[in-house]
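User: Predict the structure for this protein chain, please.
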Amino acid sequence: MFSPVIRFPSGRIFKIEKTPSTREITLVFLDRKTLFSYFNLSPREDVPSCLWLPLAKNEPWGKKGEMVFVLLLSQNNVAVFRSLLASYPEYPADAPFYFLSPALKKGYDAEFQKDHFFCCYTLYKDSWYPVCYTPFQSAVIELEIDEKHTYDFIAFGSESNLSVAVMQGTEIHLSPTYGRLIDWSQLEMANQWMERKRKGFLSSGVIFHEYYHESLLHTYLSKYGQKSTYTHTEAHFANILFDNRFFSTPLLGVIFDEADHTSSGTIEGSDLVYGTMAKTQILASWRPIPVPGHASTYLEPWRTTLAVLREVIGNLEDLDIPFLQMLRKNQEIHYVIDAINKRIINVTPSSSMNHILMAIFELLDYRSLIEEYDMQNKRFDEFFMAQETEVYPIHVIQIDGRTYLDTHELFRYIVTDVQSGKSPEHILHQAIHTLFVHTANLLKEYAETYNEKRVALSGHLFIHPHLLQLMVYHLEKVGLVPLLHKRIPTDDSSVALGALLHILAQKEMKSSHEA
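Assistant: Here is the predicted structure, written as structure tokens:
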């Protein structure tokens, strides 16, 4: 047992007593008055149902890197919350839900209006931006499709934040999220949820899943017959277009994602796209970097940085920079450095913007090794992005018929500046702005080609307000019009929904009510 403490921006401290250490805490209840005082927010009439807040640096909360999900209750949502949980046996009635109001130890009983999308938001500028679905309620999305047609479609979402979507008549039903997939029990909970929708759904339906053979999900689904794959890029793009009611109008888009595995054995995730919900064309990406041991890279992102340096700069023994100096002090990882330098570790080419940013941050923020994926992601929230700074000149190149912005060139500039003694913080600002400025500039060229200024932004990386704001700023600076998510989250919890939207659009999505 432990007693976690949360320190809020207002300076207040709240302790939670008797919290089970064996259970991951993902939701915290606050009454509205307490919420505003603790988080220094101004009361507003249009406050959404749920707010997503990353914990600030070095503040204890059970496991490292956890996020706090805050439920905001309105007067219209007061009902019986625990009766809602009774519908979901995978979430026991004594699950650790808490209020942070000392005066309200037991909290409210609440149920959400059925027509409300249940997802978590973060504050972006003066608006609430949807970032992820929650583990505590499913969602129903009504579609404009022919009622005479029936589809036995099931889509499993991303293993980074698993959810399941199924077709029920003219509706898509989306399960609660089950978190990062780590064991069979999460898949069994998903199966139980589907069984409550219809018996034998997995055996009779057509199953869609992401293309990743080295996965627990792939093994689990191997016993079922009718299966097909989709890409994250298709799913994220379908979500943002549907959310903005562009059912068949082609638009430009930016998909900055975590990891999108492809049939060719590569990883996508920094795509500039053009198309519709039914058909997505990748126009360009950032050039892939080598990622050694994909799973271990999430836990130890310094491995990717090492592989990039070996690929871009050359022999690591000839390179003397602070990042390598720190690694060489650790005797336990000398064998990893040696194996990467000798190129005897298998690597996967990845253009994932998450992998690119992780490698840059690890190279420049070398004060200590980050050994948890969620802690690495917290850097994106803690680092303040200045909106104006110089950028590195980056070329657009062609490799095997694909168009790329040259990521390798960017890393060469970074290493050169590190060797010249420039401030790591200055280099980090310049490097990240370079990624976003050149993305916006290339999109401007495509906007002229396709006579289309609207650019839809989606993908897991845009859960981070700094990164979202930076992309919006540079797009608007070159005269483009960013389109943001409104109700469907931008992260991977909505990938299952996007997959079915993409597949159904190919079938018969109506094009009426265009924005």
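The first strand starts at residue 5 and ends at 7.
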